[in-house]
From TrEMBL:
It is found in: Mitochondrion matrix. Pfam families: tRNA-synt_1b. Its main location: mitochondrion. This is Tryptophan--tRNA ligase, mitochondrial. The gene is WARS2. Transmembrane segments: none annotated. The lineage of its organism: Eukaryota, Metazoa, Chordata, Craniata, Vertebrata. Keywords: Aminoacyl-tRNA synthetase, ATP-binding, Ligase, Nucleotide-binding, Protein biosynthesis. One of its GO terms (biological process) is mitochondrial tryptophanyl-tRNA aminoacylation. GO terms for molecular function: ATP binding; tryptophan-tRNA ligase activity. It catalyses: tRNA(Trp) + L-tryptophan + ATP = L-tryptophyl-tRNA(Trp) + AMP + diphosphate + H(+). Its EC number is 6.1.1.2. HAMAP family: Trp_tRNA_synth_B.
């Protein structure tokens, strides 16, 4: 299996032509600090598996995207390092993938401008994330918030990525990237592969305080979200206070019993068991006792990760170097692709 650096050398030697399609994974995560349980089960765990299955894999800390929601510079800097430490602790290996900070590769923003000129505004206005996040900005919304799906398309297409791991809530954005790729190819000739989705098989993890909404870092309810660096006591408290219902039996019925079903989904995901196997284990337990079983499973899963995060956070220079080294490799990969894009659109 070729290494990512080997692919770069092949590109520069010309042994991989511009029209050669290499299976390539691209995905990113916004730097919100230490990820939560939903981030881990829905995305990061899958990233770890994909870096073993594919020979060309890029994972980016999306610091440019994070500016769509206001951040203090000092907070953003720390969040970038904390997110990097966490995903490394979860098993992301810079020897098996390119892990880099988005803003260190300026071609992302340059390509976003080109692709933005091929994208109509009504399409962006229809995206649900625009409507939802605009509401949090006093129904005004910024240009960045409106156009960040175009930047997402540029993130993917800059490397001629063929596959993108996504959750259900990002499918429409990937469809936009697919349409933009096809539009570019129709206008300038076949160039971009149309990226395919790799859908997460994990059930969407819901808030522990309101199982009608997904778990979120920005949830104002402190007990709603389990962070992967939470202490055992914090994890126990959050699961003890998790919203369920008045039926004590443990069953799986997301429509009728969303709270208990969320606990079952979490239990299955962290143990690697099926829903059926988890329910078999829970037979005879009431929901109060079952909450503690799930809490203990989460504590066991995250104990080594939590310890590794602490160690990595103590060495900021190492984290910065990992992201800088990854950015250099990403730039090498992007350079010949972006030069060809510049030629195709008439910049050179």
């Amino acid at each position: 299996m070729a290494t990512p650096s080997g692919l770069i050398r092949a590109l520069h030697r010309g042994t991989l032509g511009q029209n050669t399609v290499v299976d390539r994974i691209f995905s990113g995560i916004q730097p919100t600090g230490t990820p939560h349980l939903g981030n881990y089960l829905g995305a990061i765990q899958n990233w770890v598996n994909l870096q073993e299955e594919y020979s060309s894999v890029l994972y980016s800390i999306m610091d440019m995207h994070s500016l769509t929601m206001p951040k203090e510079p000092a907070v953003l800097r720390q969040n970038i390092l904390d997110t990097t430490a966490a995903i490394l602790a979860c098993g992301i290996d810079p020897k098996k993938c390119f892990l880099f900070r988005q803003s260190l590769v300026p071609e992302h923003a340059e390509l976003a401008w080109i692709l933005g000129c091929l994208t109509n505004v009504p399409r962006l206005l229809r995206l649900p994330q625009w409507k939802m996040k605009r509401a949090s900005q006093n129904s005004e919304g910024t240009v960045g918030l409106l156009t960040y799906p175009v930047l997402q398309a540029a993130d993917i297409l800059l490397y001629k990525s063929t596959h993108v791991p996504v959750g259900e809530d990002q499918v429409l954005h990937l469809e936009l990237a697919q349409d933009i790729a096809q539009h570019f190819n129709k206008k300038y000739g076949e160039f971009f592969p149309v990226p395919k989705a790799i859908l997460s098989t994990t059930k969407k993890i819901k808030s522990l305080r309101d199982p009608a909404v997904k778990m979120s870092k920005s949830d104002p309810k402190k007990l709603a979200t389990v962070n992967i660096a939470d202490s055992p006591d914090e994890i126990v408290l959050k699961f003890r206070k998790a919203v369920t219902d008045f039926t004590s039996e443990v069953t799986y019925d997301p429509a009728a019993r969303p709270g208990v079903s969320n606990l079952v989904s979490i239990h299955a995901a962290v143990t690697g068991l099926s829903i059926k196997e988890v329910l078999h284990q829970a037979a005879g337990l009431d929901t109060a006792h079952y909450k503690m079983v799930v809490a203990e499973s989460v504590i066991q899963k995250f104990a080594p990760i939590r310890n590794e995060i602490k160690k990595l956070q103590e060495d900021k220079s190492h984290l910065i170097k990992v992201l800088e080294d990854g950015a250099e490799k990403a730039k090498e990969l992007a350079a010949p692709i972006y030069q060809e894009i510049r030629r195709l659109v008439g910049f050179q």
